[in-house]
Amino acid sequence: MLTILHLLIKNKLLMKNIFKTFIGIAALILVLIACKKQEYSMGDLTAPSNVVINAVVVGVDATHPNGDGSGQVNISITADNALTYNVDYDANDGVSWVNIPKGTVTKKYTATGVYTYRITALVYGVGGTSSTATKEVTVRSDFSPPASLVTNLTNDATKTWVVDAKVAGHFGVGPFTGDGSTSPVWWSASIDEKVACCNCFYTSTFTFTKVSSTNYTLKATCPDGAFTKTGSLTTLPGIPSSGAEGCYTYSGGTSAFAFAPASSGIATPTSTQVSIMLAGVNTFIGYGAVQKEYEILEITPTYMYLRVQGTETGNAWYLKLKPL
Fold it and tell me: Distance (Å, rounded) from C-alpha 221 to C-alpha 205?
């Protein structure tokens, strides 16, 4: 009886060990299965092919081989195995990609005259594959400012403006960037802020004259000098080579100016999209430490708001003027 009892106990222990061993092997198999790296298949990574750019200049005919002067070009991009489309409108001035989800867009070129642009298409396919194509297009753009803008600025004859010291924010500065910023977020002048240090800022006058429909002049008159920085930071002749910002002896001058499409790309209604382009070095508007393109953000018969790039990199200066 003792021997049989021992055998039963021994067999029971053996079965228990076998069961534990089985459980361990099963657990190990599950771990191995879980740790096995899952493999993915992306399929055939075929880059887009047969990339074609179609560029149709609006208004082309036998008499107008480069278009009707609107500067508009209808662009369409097609390709096999394409997922997304990107375009650079002119590789001649650096590359800047614009996504066009459907591959079609109308581009308005604003440089006045006849110019040739190199359009580049960048087409993406599966897995980030890509292909490119280029096409040159010659476009004519005629620019004529809105008649109401000319009337507001010149009174269709002659009109004189001054910086409006009695309005907060009549002078200010912010970033000159491509983000469409149109606010003097870094600093904005309070009413009469420059009277104590630089009253010439408020006594200088700026007379805009319409000589003809295509001929305009600006006369800057500075009885108390010009408000400006010095040295390389001024665009005016005869200003000292060093010194702090302030009023410096300057009698003023007269020069031609032209209207042109604003180069900032700021959209309406934030901007009129029209700029005053000064010729030569004798004239300025308000502040003598800026460049020669003054974008007209807003203009009425009694108010003008300008934005202009400073001579210091990255600065955009803002000026509010009123008729004298």
Answer: 5
Average pLDDT, the chain: 87
CB-based contacts of 43: which residues, under 8 Å, 6+ apart? 126
Residue 286: name the closest of 262, 253, 319 by CA. Answer: 319
Instruction: Please tell me whether residues 266 and 294 are part of one structural domain.
Output: yes
Do you find a cis peptide bond into 237, omega within 30 degrees of 0?
Answer: no
Show the DSSP H helices in the chain as ranges: 2-35, 147-154, 195-198, 200-203
Q: Which residue has the higher pLDDT, 94 or 17?
A: 94
Cα 108 to Cα 170: distance, rounded to the nearest angstrom:
33
Nearest residue to 292 via CA among 281, 301, 303: 281
**Whole-number CA gyration radius for the chain:** 35
168 with 61, same domain: the answer is: no
Query: CA 261, 266, 267, 273: dihedral to nearest 10 degrees?
Result: -20
In a domain, 13, yes or no: no
The reported pTM is: 0.65
In whole angstroms, give the CA distance from residue 157 to residue 139.
33
Tokens of 264: 């900032």
Residue 17 reports pLDDT greater than 60: no
Q: Are residues 206 and 106 in the same domain?
A: no
In the chain, the largest separation of any two C-alpha atoms, in whole Å, equals: 133
For the beta carbon of residue 221, count every other beta carbon within 10 angstroms: 15
Q: How many domains does the chain have?
A: 2
By residue range, what is the domain housing residue 127?
49-141
Which residue, 141, 158, 193, sits at the end of a domain? Answer: 141
Question: Do the domain assignments include residue 33?
Answer: no
Which run of H or of E encompasses 320? Answer: strand 315-323
Per the document, the length of the chain is 324
Q: Can you give the pLDDT at residue 177?
A: 74
Domain boundary residue among 93, 117, 141? 141
